[in-house]
Records
---
Amino acid sequence: MEFSSKLLENAVYEISQLPGIGKRTALRLVLHLLRQPKEQTERLSFALQNLRNEIRYCKNCYNISDVEWCEICANPKREESLVCVVEDIRDVMAIENTGQYTGHYHVLGGKISPLDGIGPGELNIEPLVRKVEKGVVKEIIFALSSTMEGDTTNFYIYKQVHPYGVKTSTIARGIAVGDELEYADEVTLGRSILNRIPFENSLKS
Amino acid sequence: MEFSSKLLENAVYEISQLPGIGKRTALRLVLHLLRQPKEQTERLSFALQNLRNEIRYCKNCYNISDVEWCEICANPKREESLVCVVEDIRDVMAIENTGQYTGHYHVLGGKISPLDGIGPGELNIEPLVRKVEKGVVKEIIFALSSTMEGDTTNFYIYKQVHPYGVKTSTIARGIAVGDELEYADEVTLGRSILNRIPFENSLKS
């Protein structure tokens, strides 16, 4: 792409560094901003820089939070001894949306992925082990995505916390509610048969 | 969406104001920026603000340009008397990419669209008419998209410049090179028969 302006080229380049945004889309976004009042671009730049510079994480669960302890960790009604291990804030939001979970979270900030240069040291695994060691945490639910990286991460944490006698589980994998069996992949369908649940339990929710 | 941080919510909101970007995508982009070095967010914010504040348009064709006269208008090899009327800079880039056009451009900055509150006064139509009046422009090629708004804009400009005896044309509409006839829409196919070209001409390029 040949641009008639360096300023334009630079703005398009920086936007196209974001994941899933190519040069064409970046140009479309920049031209949109040019048609809007200056204040919109100012607010956008300011909001991004502000977030990046002022970002803080909850001291207990490592979720993004404006205060030392996030709302969930600060809520005395939530069970401190039950911890759900997730990858990032989106998973916390998704589980909170269900309204079914009453424990705490622990946000790892990623998964172990040697190919991307992410080892256990890059993730918030150590603080979780400390909480288990202190006896604060009695049960851990693994809610990472079921990829090789997710399984590796689960297993790594499991090996660290198992000696302390903590209860561990992973969220159930199975056919989504409302899905047709014929379209399910065989791994999921196979697991859903192996890990079948008593019929009475399925009536509960 | 419930956010655990006002800073995060604000950044997601501002990004989701861009066209085609919803809250989920905005959150994904923001989380990506948080995983990158601070400098990337700084560069992005700076590039956007810089563009928005310093943006300049070519005095002759109204294309985005860092200097008074854009590279095309300043090039003595380009025909000043032939002007291609386009909507925005993307159209200029697309036509320049073909390497077939040797004239100037005139960037309108949009199309007449009463529903969006865009009248002829909001577009750069007046300066084009002045150039025709002065006798600088001898031929105009309309290259707006063939929608109702595009056709209206073409006709509005045509009525203004026609009295000065300027030659006007629109780019050819027809079946794209390499396309199958059976998939073409009937309007395009119909026009391509009405506006057929001598076979010898089709051998040229």
---
Amino acid sequence: MDLLIQTIKEEGIVLSDSVLKVDSFLNHQINPRLMYEIGKEFSNRFKEDRITKILTIESSGIAPSVMTGLQLDVPVIFARKKKSLTLVNDLLTAKVYSFTKQESNDISVSNKYLNEKDRVLIIDDFLANGQAAIGLAEIVKQANAEIAGIGIVIEKGFQNGGQLLREQGLRVESLARIHSLDNGEVSFIKDGTKEAVR
Amino acid sequence: MDLLIQTIKEEGIVLSDSVLKVDSFLNHQINPRLMYEIGKEFSNRFKEDRITKILTIESSGIAPSVMTGLQLDVPVIFARKKKSLTLVNDLLTAKVYSFTKQESNDISVSNKYLNEKDRVLIIDDFLANGQAAIGLAEIVKQANAEIAGIGIVIEKGFQNGGQLLREQGLRVESLARIHSLDNGEVSFIKDGTKEAVR
């Protein structure tokens, strides 16, 4: 997605060979117009898939998800990383290990909002090792719902999450795929190839 | 805001005399169309106020904020409740006590995204004791930015947050104001009055 790649080039900050900071438009400050365009792109890619629900995880997944939900006209559910006092019963839960934070968290979704009739689009901001997406997929399975696909804003193509998910037969649509962050520079994987471009 | 009040009446669950659960459209599952309408309403109420930034707090403030940001065409910043590994330096922080969770949290915003030229609209999902809004206002002041107003989706009019903020001279716009949750029923404060209506 050109606008997204352009924004990453202009505003992304490479903190190390594996960490890209996109705090100016996605993870802390949010660019609502860009989120709208991201929602439009996900919506185009999944519009034939009879999606009934979008499932994401707090907090950075919410903005792209809600813009996609607006355009597909379906509800968005965000999994919680921490148990809420008013959300205690009948939870679907999965364990997610964060390599960045080096800790394991239970994520949870109320079973009221997912059932066997649902076709779920999972959306997240980043795909690196795939742990969050795998946890969300696990929750969809617990609800006996179907996973229609996974929409990722930024995939780190040099980490193995995308491969793990695709090997499970899941359809993963990433709007920007990063080839490498070596030497402080972002290079992208060209759409439909494994070729690197700057 | 009629659509919001209607949705609260239909889907809100009164858990006690002080707790209203709106997990089906705002706090866990999100209704994107309703969020769009909420964004339109905030945008109408603040469109003359030369807003440059919206400030909210993760997670439930993000959806209404990003829809408002889309329509006012300004960036949204969400304060974090937990420190991120890639967000460590130059933080503006405030302490927020949550009566619901009975714990105190530091909330933080990078000082890169707020400065003395900003006119900030603070948005949050709920206003009860006002602690989150006061913390966000504190952060705006630390950045020497101006608070243009506070937009609240649901105000619990029977708790003192609204009064605290208005006594500080802050403009608070709440889209639904709850008069009471007594006897398991939601009654609202009629716009522009202190009168209760069902």
